[in-house]
Design a protein that fits this description.
Structural class: alpha+beta
Distance between the termini: 37 Å
Number of strands: 24
Largest sheet: 6 strands, mixed
Number of helices: 17
Helix content: 25-40%
Amino acid sequence: MAEDRLMIETGNRTAKLLLIAGAIVLAGCAAPRTPVTQDDGFPAEAATETFAAGYSNIVLKYIDPVRLDDLAVEGMRGLGVIDPALTVRRQDGELVLASADGDVAHFTLPADKSDAQAWAGLTVAVSRTARTVSPEMDHADIEDIYQAVFDSALSHLDRYSRYAGREEAKRHRDRREGFGGIGVRFQAMEDGAHITEIVEESPAEKVGLRPGDILIQVNGKPVRGLSSKQVSHLLRGAIDTSVLLTVRRGDGGTSLLTYRLKRAHVVPNTVTAEFESGILILRVNRFNQATSAAIRRKVREAERVYGDSLEGLVLDLRGNPGGLLKQAIYAADLFLTQGEILRTRGRHPDSEQYYEAGGADLLPGLPLVVLVDGKSASAAEITAAAIQDRGRGLVIGTTSYGKGTVQTVIPLPNDGEITLTWSRFITPSGYVLHELGVHPTLCTSAAVPGHGDPVAYLLARRPQAAAVIADWRTVPFTDNARKKLLRADCPAERHPDSPDELSLARRLIEDSALYSRLLGLSNMAAADARS
């Protein structure tokens, strides 16, 4: 999805916190609902630790100021997701928990509105009391309560800040950082798990597994009839542990092959390469921990194999929802020799960063074209904007998504995590990318007149095009109306597999004079914006 979070990882964990119980006065004026037995096994101390860690980090790191007391109250209102009959309100210096039958309990509010530990203790006290009157709450797992509270608290901030419970957080970490496995993608079918992709340099590749092979057994357990999740569970495990596979080749043969593999740290492939008529096309579907290294490796391999016949590079970022911030920086740096790549600005001191090119271009002198569309977001936009603003390459396609905020990942004591917006990024030419996006040098949006030949259309309206690009780079961040108008100049559309942009990229790479002419137009506007 296009709103994939641009993330940086933090290792902050708060010290273990002791439960603070708010004073509770049971209300006797309303007939209570049928009571349920209080679960003495409710992990009050661990829950207090988790809520306090979440509350304190949100208040400290969110991009805009947040009041802790407001945050906690909004969080407790989230219990209504578990039982819609439950409500929470402030009244005369107290917090009142109510059900459909009336007020259930009154709680004394913490004297210090900024004491995360105290508000976490109150959240636990309210949750435990709710369990005595609500069967839905009593049957809810503690993870359900974490989800309800944090979802409610974060929903009032922005759409990119969210909570992930233990299992979901693990999946996110696997996607970002990799996992212990053998390095295959597969599709569960009636006759077994059909391998669709082999991760480069993985144990599966090293033993000779191929796309099309069919997994029949894993450690002697038949996989026929198992779901994809069940097969993944069998294949994944601790690094350096062994797994025994029984495989049938997908070429119609009936003989079975046996492979013993040692699991390794596997990071999913995000980059695929294709070489056509002297042009290297790299498709990047996401930015994870291995993306920039994969780009470097595939460029070097193309140089080794094709030598002087390599005429240029197309970096296809269409449909790329983003990923890790530093990987976007590293990817842009592969093609830049000097100058700024990105700045980030937020409220927390650590959110203010400046990134500059390291001085090496993998393909000096060769043309570079970047493809974007309306689903290119976040990290993809960083890379495209840096290459465009530094004058290293042309951007072709539609206006990108416009997701220009950075999320930090906050691990919680329960092994869940909060993804929290904490900064915005600023491109080399000085514009804030959020809710604006990257404007391509050549627009291929169907709504633009003359889109049948974007080159002719652009050259026919060079002054207007230069004005739009210059205005794009100087529009105030707070001028939402102007940003919306500018985006309408080249409407964001989804072109994930359209051949038109690829054909246009080949045309520009093969016509060096035209490429230079269009690059000069973009560079002039960028220079005007910086001056």
